[in-house]
Amino acid sequence: MIEDLTRPATGDDHVGGVPARLVAEPATTEEAAAVVAAARDLTVVVRGGGTKIHWGPPPRALDLIIDTRRLAGMVEHAAGDLITVLRAGTPLDDLDLGDQQLALDHPPGATVGGTVATATSGPRRMHYGTARDLLIGITVVRPDGTITKAGGKVVKNVAGYDLGKLYTGSYGTLGLITECVFRLHPRPQAHAYVRSTAPAQAVPSILAARVAPAAIEVDSATGELAVLIEGTPEGVQERAALVGKLLAGEIAEQPPGWWGVPPWSADGIGMKLSVPLSKVPALLDADADVRGSAGTGVLYAAARDITDVERLRALCVRGGGHAVVLTAPAPVRDILDMWGPVPGLALMRRVKDQFDPGHRFAPGRFVGGI
């Protein structure tokens, strides 16, 4: 019975203000599968470090929270192959890979599973890619309790159905992620930040200079542009000097205080904006606190109200991009379409129906109320 595998929920066990009735804390994939199989009539939300648990709409119903924090630790580190296998509840802060790195920027306390489930990334996505790019294998428990693996420990392994890409960014609506296999990169020997007040229009010049920046970030509030250069000490010194001259900027060892930090307050409206690179300057001039990657066109904004949300969303759509609301206070969230228009919704509904026919996992949390 499910009661034998769970504990009663407490006042802290809620998602978006919706309280749970039970909490399960499995320590292995097999234990997680047993919980899911026993919870066939219950609605479920998966929780890791909780750093993004309140992103997105609240669930329509919530019986059970599956907490993955005991499902933690490194299964394997194949240094020679630049591969690691991590359990979903592993805090990314705790990773020790020696002279290698999992190049995923993350907020303090974020876990492997939560980062993949929400497809979050930071400034260095420009050079290293996102979670979807770095993930090469995955183990999941499907809503019927079946354990399924896809991909593997070979970077070019693309045989079969790519569950990794399907589960990345699915917000826990297709099942429970228990293990992830990632491609690693060597840890750079040196780094430098070039900080400048040059406009975002200078980005094409940086790219044309062939200095291989790891990140190019901008912040509308300070009017600052910052470029991260990584590599060998000699190479970093030479390339940073070139960028500094190009931007009339200064070279620093530490990033600006706004680097990689969302621009919204804890109780504010936070948006993710994605546009072509040529439209980044227009977003920075949009009378809003906007910051993020001028090298990829993925930025984050603090909206003042619903009118501001719609204005920023329209600006993105007209520019060939899109905008979603990641987080908002309940009075705003409850009357707002947080996802906005999303292409491929009919296909997403069919995938949901196939993987979770009872719509039990994170019901209503994803696009179109999926």
TrEMBL record:
<protein>
    <submittedName>
        <fullName>Glycolate oxidase FAD binding subunit</fullName>
    </submittedName>
</protein>
<dbReference type="GO" id="GO:0003824">
    <property type="term" value="F:catalytic activity"/>
</dbReference>
<dbReference type="InterPro" id="IPR036318">
    <property type="entry name" value="FAD-bd_PCMH-like_sf"/>
</dbReference>
<dbReference type="InterPro" id="IPR016169">
    <property type="entry name" value="FAD-bd_PCMH_sub2"/>
</dbReference>
<dbReference type="Pfam" id="PF01565">
    <property type="entry name" value="FAD_binding_4"/>
</dbReference>
<keyword id="KW-0285">Flavoprotein</keyword>
<dbReference type="InterPro" id="IPR016166">
    <property type="entry name" value="FAD-bd_PCMH"/>
</dbReference>
<dbReference type="InterPro" id="IPR006094">
    <property type="entry name" value="Oxid_FAD_bind_N"/>
</dbReference>
<dbReference type="InterPro" id="IPR016164">
    <property type="entry name" value="FAD-linked_Oxase-like_C"/>
</dbReference>
<keyword id="KW-0274">FAD</keyword>
<dbReference type="GO" id="GO:0071949">
    <property type="term" value="F:FAD binding"/>
</dbReference>
<feature type="domain" description="FAD-binding PCMH-type">
    <location>
        <begin position="15"/>
        <end position="187"/>
    </location>
</feature>
